[in-house]
Amino acid sequence: MGLTTDPAPPDTGGTDLAPHKEADPGDLAALRVVPTRHYGRWAAALAVLVLTAQFTHGLVTNPVWEWEVFRAYVLSETIVSAVGLTLQLTAYATVLGFALGTVLAFMRLSRNPVLQTVAWAYIWIFRSIPMIVQLVFWFNLSALYERLGLGIPFGPVFWSVDSNDLIGTIGAALIGLSLHQAAYAAEIVRGGVISVDHGQLEAAAALGIPRLRQIRRIVLPQAMRAILPTAGNEIIGLLKGTSVVYVMAIGELFYQVQVIYGRNGHVIPLLMVATAWYVFLTSVLSVAQYYVERHFARGANRTPPPTPLQRARDALARLRAGAADKTPATPRGGTA
Question: What is the spatial distance between Cα 114 and Cα 242, in angstroms, rounded to a whole number?
């Protein structure tokens, strides 16, 4: 019996002639995944962090900020009272402005040409005139009408009163802010109403639902999803816009800050007092806007995403669960 050997494979010059075998999908888990490097993003983030650190360092070390003066005035009785007046002006002007704006919006949507024209003219005029001009005009209303009264049109007047007695400084500010806000609120409400599918009204009319109930129970709840984001911005803008009434010598936040730094000369820290209060109030309104929008979004999203507070609670629960899992168990017989 002889020994046999397999014939040597032909020389291929170092080239593998075996067919290429595609990767098995079952072996994909063994592959090394290399994330994409975003060097530009990291460079931009680093630049932002450096600028933020420089700004923070300047806030802490620059003596011009005078943080001791800021701490002395930020919660003083005068400033807190001015903040309260600012909130009152904002609340009253918001309620009156959106109430009148809602009426104007439905006047524009009316089929009556007179109502349409009057509403359009009102919105055009009050959006064209700056707020500060309107405030000064209402403040000097007595120069145009010394007395205001009730009576028969173009006839005798049965009751009249002096304009300054009827409309004081606060009243003039509320009238100016409310009428100015109503022009913008009307367009916000009108935009929300026309965003509702017209078939909703046709279906409600086919069911015999009265027109007013259609608006109150069908149109407005759906329109709120489109109204609220812009309305929230308008309310926040109105909160900051109340600072314009300083021209009428009303003791709101910005006016009181001006009076104080006009006496003591500490301009920068007093401006920071006003800034801190405006940032705080704006943040509170933003949080309230978030939850109101979430409430009215339930019809479109039955499972809304968790709120930041719910996310924080879930994260804390996961941390506690992870810490409990890492704690070594104690033997039943006692310590070893």
Answer: 33
Q: What is the mean pLDDT of residues 288-292?
A: 88
Residue 257 has pLDDT above 50, yes or no: yes
Lowest mean pLDDT among 110-124, 129-143, 233-247, 290-304: 290-304
How crowded is residue 308: how many other Cβ atoms within 10 Å of its Cβ? 9
pLDDT band at 279 (very low <50, low <70, confident <90, very high): very high
pTM of this structure: 0.75
Q: First CA to last CA across the chain, in angstroms?
A: 72
